[in-house]
Design a protein that fits this description.
Elements: E1 9-10, E2 14-19, E3 23-32, E4 41-45, E5 52-53, E6 58-59, E7 67-75, E8 85-94, E9 100-109, E10 113-119, E11 140-145, E12 151-156, E13 162-164, E14 169-170, E15 172-179, E16 186-192, E17 197-201
Parallel strand pairs: 2-9, 10-17
Antiparallel strand pairs: 1-3, 3-7, 4-6, 4-8, 5-7, 8-9, 10-13, 10-14, 11-12, 11-15, 15-16
């Protein structure tokens, strides 16, 4: 609840991206739109969010119609999930007014690409139970990011029933959908790692 005789803080929520194994610094602009200075402002955030840190626990008083900037440090560790979304709250607690919660939402991205070879095999032909089924040329292949739902790549298998991403897809987890005339629809999930030749038989 806000009383007219107090200060009042306003700030935009944050929605941004972070590279895995990367770091970045953001500035949040904070404004006092009340009729009184804020007094010192306490700063709190979720300590269990290892990807977010704030270098201060207190901001100096902001005068009426004044502004200040709060620094956020974002860190993407090796274990953070690519295409995953992480959320945290930074709470500002002025002495002379109501608290303000600033929501921070961060999506992890990667610049590392991964290679994938999809081998489409006719599982219902004679000999297929021994892994010797015929390879299906001209099958349609679609890769969809498992977390975002975005289509990463589409194409068809070559004369040998193979489909290659050729470094056009970033690392992450994908649904692989395969269709071909006179064949059953197939779907599999795979996590693509950079620096290795990922292979999938469908």
């Amino acid at each position: 609840r806000w009383y007219a005789a107090e200060s009042k803080l306003v700030a935009d929520n944050v929605r941004t991206t972070l590279y895995r194994n990367g770091q970045r610094t953001l500035k949040i602009l904070i404004e006092n739109v009340g009729i009184k200075e804020t007094g010192s402002i306490g700063v709190e955030w979720s300590s269990n969010q290892s990807w977010l840190s704030v270098p201060t626990t207190q901001l100096a008083s902001i005068p009426k119609e004044g502004r200040a900037a709060l620094t956020l440090n974002l860190t993407g560790s090796q274990d953070i999930i690519v295409d995953g979304t992480y959320e945290a709250t930074v709470r500002l607690k002025p002495q002379n007014g109501p608290k303000l919660d600033v929501k921070v939402k961060c999506t992890v991205v990667s610049t590392d690409v991964a290679n994938l070879t999809v081998d489409v095999v006719d599982a219902y032909s004679l000999g297929a139970e021994n892994g010797n089924g015929p390879h299906v040329a001209g099958a349609s292949v679609r890769l969809t990011n498992a977390l975002t739902g975005e289509v990463a790549m589409t194409g068809t298998t070559d004369a040998n029933g193979l489909f290659y991403t050729d470094g056009q897809v970033k690392e992450g987890t994908y649904y692989v959908y395969v269709t071909a005339p006179n064949h059953y629809y197939a779907e599999k999930t795979i996590t693509l790692d950079p620096g290795v030749e990922n292979q999938l038989e469908v």
